[in-house]
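Action item from last week, closing it out:
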Amino acid sequence: MDLLVGTSGFAYPHWKGSFYPRGLAANAQLGYYAERFAAVELNVTFYRMPSAAAFRGWANAVPPGFVFAVKASRYITHVRRLRDPKDPVEFLRERAGLLGEHLGPFLLQLPPDMSAEPERLADTLDAFGPARVAVEFRHASWFTPEIEALLRSKGAALCLADRHGPRTPLLRTAEWTYLRLHEGRAFMPPCYGDGALRGWVERLREAALADRGFVFFNNDHRACAVKNAARMVELLRLAETFAGSDLDVQPVLRR
């Protein structure tokens, strides 16, 4: 698997005119998106569980090779706080499984006020079985050798995150990488400037993290996410670290 780049979510009304053509129907947006990017992170699953029909529809709207990452429900991470994960994880896996060959990794984003709970995390990762899981920690107490060893033993990826809060170590705990970029500080925030994007390309290369995995932009305002994702693909190609699709990403940006 190559390093696939996309955005966190795809159905944003404020992308009309800047990314989606103004007359494009809502049910055609995913197909339009999938012609230009190779992956998307479904964040709607964090707030509510979409219907089985929705998952089937998404799977039918994308071309072969397109990948969905699925953000785990806040019921698992924020309500139960990883307690008794078996049943809700099973429900999530069952519903997400309707994506078929397009299903990629799951993302567990933990609350910023949740300190380290190794046993709960181990139980949750076990509940996911053989599925790939990335974990985004937002409390500094998680960044310890014990948690690193736990992730490695379960084959789970430490989610690298560019955001406010404790800095994520550049560690590879699985055979694949998961990077989320939340907010840039360019002249027009939350966009990332070219210097910041080039910096992330170099970090990924230097830490040997750029050969396989996912990069998702979560800065949807001003359509920054799609602009930055397209530019990131170009920079990765220039750095000869992106061996994925032959999509021409340049035309997706509209004035």
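Closing note: The chain has a mean pLDDT of 91.
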